[in-house]
UniProtKB/TrEMBL annotation:
Binding site for substrate: 9, 67, 143-146, 174, 194-195
Pathway in which this enzyme or protein is active: Carbohydrate degradation; pentose phosphate pathway; D-xylulose 5-phosphate from D-ribulose 5-phosphate (non-oxidative stage): step 1/1
GO biological process: carbohydrate metabolic process; pentose-phosphate shunt
GO molecular function, one term: metal ion binding
Domain of life (superkingdom): Eukaryota
Coiled-coil region(s): none
Gene: RPE1
UniProt catalytic activity: D-ribulose 5-phosphate = D-xylulose 5-phosphate
Organism of origin: Podila minutissima
EC number: 5.1.3.1
Cofactor info, note text: Binds 1 divalent metal cation per subunit.
Name assigned to this protein: Ribulose-phosphate 3-epimerase
Leading EC class: isomerase
Length: 225
């Protein structure tokens, strides 16, 4: 049974003090740290690249969940591996050979994730379930934080969970206390949240409530089988 992993999105943090923001999230109970990498081409925004990850890993020892919103994801695998990224999650829409790219990521020593945009059918990644380490089902159009959660993506999570009971399934975009139940009931166990965590009055309590909700639902799903 996959356990909850809460991965705050640093996109909502202060990039001027990024290492301190990462440490702050870990001190509040974050399991992973979600790093949104945007190239201004795959998505209409630019954030950070491998040099920033490389600087960060000198200051902290944390699981870096890198969400690669980039065209040509094959190009950056070695740079991110050298920089100390833990998980390299590319978009299925950005590559012609996802299976070969997963092999490349594994050979470089990272875990491999595959992301799908809201309008991309889950069938595009269904056969990769035994090969990838994680599937990211986007719940907003990638590119910006602070958008509305798209509940209509939940059937994709449920379909993937039904076929792969042990796969890490991540949801990303607009996740908050109001919709964590829907995400967890569908079967998501890796929760990305930027706005709702960074803006919370009680950050530790928010992270803990996401974790509890996911773990309860995972147990229910496991007992249903
Ligand atoms: O991938 C992303 C945007 O493309 C971010 O991870 C995501 O939007 C998280 O921020 P928020 O919780 O504020 O929506
Ligand atoms: Fe993301």
């Amino acid at each position: 049974m996959p356990i909850a992993k809460i991965s705050p999105s640093l996109l909502s943090g202060d990039f001027g003090i990024l290492a301190a923001e990462c440490k702050r999230m870990v001190s509040h109970g974050a399991d992973w740290l979600h790093m949104d990498v945007m190239d201004g081409h795959f998505v209409p925004n630019i954030t950070i690249g491998a040099p920033v990850i490389s600087c960060l890993t000198k200051h902290l020892d944390a699981f870096l969940d890198c969400h690669m919103m980039v065209s040509h994801p094959e190009k950056w695998v070695d740079d991110f591996a050298k920089a100390g990224a833990s998980l390299y999650c590319f978009h299925i829409e950005a590559t012609k050979d996802a299976s070969a790219l997963i092999d490349q990521i594994h050979a470089a020593g990272m875990k491999a994730g595959v992301a799908v945009k809201p309008k991309t059918p889950i069938s595009t990644v269904m056969d990769l379930g035994d090969k990838m380490d994680m599937c990211l089902v986007m719940t907003v159009e990638p590119g910006f934080g602070g958008q509305r959660f798209m509940a209509e993506c939940m059937p994709k999570v449920a379909e993937l969970r039904a076929r792969y009971p042990n796969l890490d399934i991540e949801v990303d975009g607009g996740i908050a206390r109001e919709n964590i139940d829907a995400a967890a009931q569908a079967g998501a166990n890796v929760i990305v949240a930027g706005t709702s965590i960074f803006k919370a009055d009680d950050i530790s309590g928010t992270i803990e409530s996401f974790r509890t909700t996911v773990n309860i639902q995972q147990e229910l799903l496991a007992n249903k089988k």
